[in-house]
Amino acid sequence: MSENIKLSIILFISLLATFSCSADSEKYEAEEQREAETQQRVASRDKECNILVIGNSLARDAFCYVPLFIEEICPNHSVNIDIMYVGGNPLSTHWNYINDQSALFTWDTYDTKTGKWESSPYILAEDIVTSHHWDIIIFQEGSVRARIYETTQPYVSRIINCIKSLQPDAIFAYLIIPSRPDGSGFMKDTTSDNEWEMNATTARQLYDEGIISHIIPCGTAIQNARHSPLDNYGDFGHLTYDGRHLQEGIPCVIDAYTATEALMKILNINSTIANSHLRITQKWIWAINVLGRHGSVIEGSDYDYALAKQCALLAIDNPYTLQQL
User: Fold this and answer.
1) What is the pTM assigned to this prediction?
2) What's the CA gap between 135 and 122, in Å, rounded?
3) Which residues pair with 171 in a beta bridge?
4) What is the reported pLDDT for 47?
5) Model pLDDT, residue 186
6) Residues of the chain with pLDDT under 50
7) CA 79 to CA 66: how far, in whole Å?
8) How far is Cα 222 from Cα 185, in angstroms, rounded to an integer?
9) Residue 33 CB contacts under 8 Å (≥ 6 apart), including other chains
């Protein structure tokens, strides 16, 4: 290092010390903070990622909390999440609407500027797919169809082939949905564990055949939690509000932890949900305008949050195997 550079550094440090002791120190600190915030926004733009989820209300359950967890534990990464939504419908219906160019999709978007979810009805699939460069596109099948590979395929491949012409660089992933709980009127022909196993088998076959390249094992994390003390939560029980949808709070946190951890691995982001300290409250749910809310928020204890993290992390490591907690 040259003497001139050393001298410049010494002079700069001296100036900083002078500023900190001056009457203008408060103004200087404010300017320094603004500069740091500007640099952080620039860094975020450099690492921006756009994610599109194609599914129904179960996609909302899994992803509505995810933007805030990512903002908390990955502040230098901007991850934008949108949902291409048709309530209660399987991917075969999504394909029909895409193929027929029917403007019947609802477009859910998390606005990072306002910190709120927004929803726009009656949108063409092509308008959603061409609105951004999508880095990751995630498929979520309906509750009944997800159990059987033959009713999920060939629709995943058809939608992928259609999207690839518009988004050739996109990564495709598949969401394992939660099985319906034992005792639910929505499921009378099998058990919750058996339905989870069928859902996971469909996902594994899609992955093994190279149709999708990543698994988001939310359903596995939920089923892990059903073999833990967390199973007692939910107005219906087994983490659900109505025997189908996860209740707000801890149940949806398990979903969101799993989706967040999976996305960070796909994006090679060096962080983990283990670092999260965010707690979900009813006020928080209203503030970000969570879409399709199910019941009042189950806030839970620190122990519950620790168990939720364990359920999610075990599912990430073992997406096709249940764990007894």
Assistant:
1) 0.84
2) 24
3) 136
4) 64
5) 78
6) 1, 5-24, 26-28, 30-31, 33-46
7) 9
8) 19
9) none
Quick one: tokens of 274? 């283990």
- Rounded CA-CA distance 123/125 in Å is 6
pLDDT at 35: 42
pLDDT at 27: 37
* Cβ 325 vs Cβ 272: under 8 Å: no
Interacting residues of 121 by C-beta distance below 8 A, sequence separation 6+ = 106, 107
Closest by CA to 56, choosing from 95, 84, 81, 96, is 84
Structure tokens at 268: 């090679």
For the chain, the residue count is 325
Please tell me the distance from the alpha carbon of residue 176 to that of residue 199, in angstroms, as a whole number.
6
Give CA separation, 289 vs 36, 59, 106, 128, 151, in Å.
29, 16, 16, 21, 33
**C-alpha–C-alpha distance, residues 244 and 256, integer Å:** 17
Q: What is the pLDDT of residues 184-199, one digit of tens each?
A: 887 778 999 999 999 9
| 4/8 Cα distance (integer angstroms) | 6
Cα separation values, 99 from 45, 63, 88, 149, 162, Å: 34, 26, 19, 21, 9
Q: Residue 189: its pLDDT value, please?
A: 83
Beta carbons within 8 Å of 69's beta carbon, 6+ residues apart: 256, 257, 260, 273, 276, 278
The pLDDT value given to residue 188 = 75
How far apart, in whole angstroms, are the C-alpha atoms of residue 91 and residue 93?
5
Other Cβ atoms within 10 Å of 206 Cβ, number? 23
Question: What pLDDT, on the 0 to 100 scale, is given for residue 3?
Answer: 53
- Contact by Cβ (8 Å): 265, 316: yes
What is the torsional sign of CA 63, 252, 141, 325?
Answer: positive
